[in-house]
Amino acid sequence: MEIKLLLIITGSQLIQKTNPEAAQSIINPPTNNILNIVGTNKSYNFVDGSISSNLIINSDSDNVESTLIAINDDVTISSINFPGIDAITILENGSITIKKSNDVWYVVSEINSNISYNN
């Protein structure tokens, strides 16, 4: 069975939903701009650009896929865990889908985002 996880980062709270009908549970917001994506196959993350910048993406699991959606402003993502990428900006209402494999993140797709690749 595949479980999808929805995380909403807004204000000072991170709201996690495992399915659209589930009750909301509130967990701590990212610490030091680190978004730790929990070990699920796929997740969707609404990131509030008005409070998040230079967000570092992390996960303890491999083969994790996540879609990040920028709300309220543009969101910059640290490229530290993305080989071959210099900069990532998700424009407001844009998104990127990323996947972790062999301890590094890769961009799978992007909509309304700016990604600078190094040569």
Annotate the secondary structure layout:
Layout: E1 4-10, E2 13-17, E3 25-27, E4 34-36, E5 42-48, E6 56-58, E7 65-71, E8 75-77, E9 85-101, E10 104-117
Parallel strand pairs: 1-5, 4-6, 5-7
Antiparallel strand pairs: 1-2, 2-3, 7-9, 8-9, 9-10
User: What's the SSE pattern?
Assistant: EEEEEEEEEE
- Looking at the structure, the CATH topology is Jelly Rolls
Helical content (DSSP H or I, runs of 4+):
under 10%
User: Main beta sheet: strand number and arrangement?
Assistant: 8 strands, mixed
- Beta content comes to over 45%
From the helix content, strand content and strand pairing, which structural class follows? Answer: mainly beta
Shape: globular
Radius of gyration from the alpha-carbon trace, in angstroms: 13 Å
What's the total count of β strands? 10
Query: What is the subunit organization of this protein?
Result: single chain
CATH architecture: Sandwich
Q: Unreliable runs, pLDDT <50, ≥5 residues? A: 1-5, 9-29
The domain count comes to 1
In the CATH scheme, the class would be Mainly Beta
Mean pLDDT across all amino acids: 75
- The CA-CA distance between the termini, in Å, is 40 Å
Number of helices: 0
